[in-house]
Specification:
The protein is 73% helix and 5% strand. It is mainly alpha-helical. The chain is globular and about 50 Å long. InterPro entries: TM_pro_TauE-like, TSUP/Inactive_protease-like.
């Protein structure tokens, strides 16, 4: 069933969009990521303009993340205090990111730079996550289950503005979480992502948070930052397609419920390996699209 998207100005199969939303919702529940790193490139692939895909993808992330967060609230695996600090940084970052996005849109370079951002960030993050996760899996097989290392806590403990995060068992400076949230907020605005693919590793390896509260806390932060980002894009760039957002939202809410059930049955190392593989797969596809000659190549010349 073809449906016309008024802002994107393209016709797309409605069931395809529901399926894409469902896949992203599944990932949101399993990994604690908004899924924007996947949904935005997938929208590129089916013909949605990058500017619309970025702004509308951020809107869909709100719904799938909220649905997944409900399951984590029942398990009491959300550190609200940490989430608020991350969210404060994220709101500032998203405002800066939307400003940069608007400038790029005015220069006519937003499509190319959004794709380049995806290739660079997904390649770096996916590669590092895959290497670390495979090493952790090998060690766990040889030595049995081990406790996660609290990396980065030394730096966080030497900085001022220390706060006690009881749910995470941490007493660290609020500056590192704020900066992590700030960087993720900027990426959310420019790339249309929740930032979970960077947020989750940063919370584990930089802030030293235990894995059991990382996913729920990440989702809590993602909801508010992506909602704010969507609002800014809608009021400044007018690139949020309501019809597209609604179809993705319905699929995302349904998929997130299944994702939380699957994620609870897998080990932390297995979850990270699966997430890293997805990140690298999307990165490879985007990289090929940038290098290969487009099928609809044309030129504008003067006689």
């Amino acid at each position: 069933m073809q449906i016309y998207l008024p802002i994107a100005e393209v016709s797309v199969n409605a069931f395809l969009l529901l399926g894409l939303g469902g896949i992203v919702g599944l990932l949101s529940g399993m990994f604690g990521v908004g899924g924007g790193f996947l949904i935005t490139p997938l929208l590129f692939f089916i013909g949605v303009p990058p500017a619309v895909a970025v702004a509308t993808g951020a809107n869909q992330i709100v719904a799938s993340s909220f649905s997944a967060l409900m399951a984590h609230l029942k398990r009491k695996t959300v550190d609200f205090k940490m989430g608020l600090v991350l969210m404060a940084g994220g709101l500032v970052g998203s405002a800066l990111g939307v400003y940069v996005f608007t400038l790029l849109k005015q220069l006519g370079q937003v499509d190319l730079l959004v794709n380049l951002f995806y290739v660079v960030f997904l390649g770096i993050v996916g590669g590092l996550m895959m290497i670390e996760s495979l090493n952790a899996l090998r060690k766990s097989k040889r030595q049995g289950p081990t406790k996660s290392k609290k990396r980065g806590r030394g730096i966080a403990q030497t900085l001022p503005l220390k706060m006690r995060f009881r749910a995470s068992g941490l007493y660290i400076s609020a500056i590192p979480p704020f900066l992590v949230g700030l960087s993720v907020g900027i990426l959310s605005a420019i790339m249309g992502v929740g930032g979970g693919f960077i947020m989750v590793p940063a919370m584990i390896y930089i802030l030293g948070m235990p894995t059991k509260v990382v996913i729920g806390t990440s989702l809590f932060q993602i909801i508010f930052v992506t909602a704010f980002t969507t609002l800014l894009h809608a009021t400044t760039n007018y690139t949020v397609d309501i019809v597209l957002a609604l179809l993705l939202l319905v699929g995302g809410v349904i998929g997130a419920q299944f994702g939380t059930q699957i994620g609870a049955k897998l080990k932390a190392e297995q979850l990270r390996i699966a997430l890293a593989a997805l990140v690298l797969l999307v990165c490879g596809k985007l990289g090929l699209d940038l290098l290969l000659t487009p099928s609809d190549l044309y030129s504008i010349g003067t006689s």
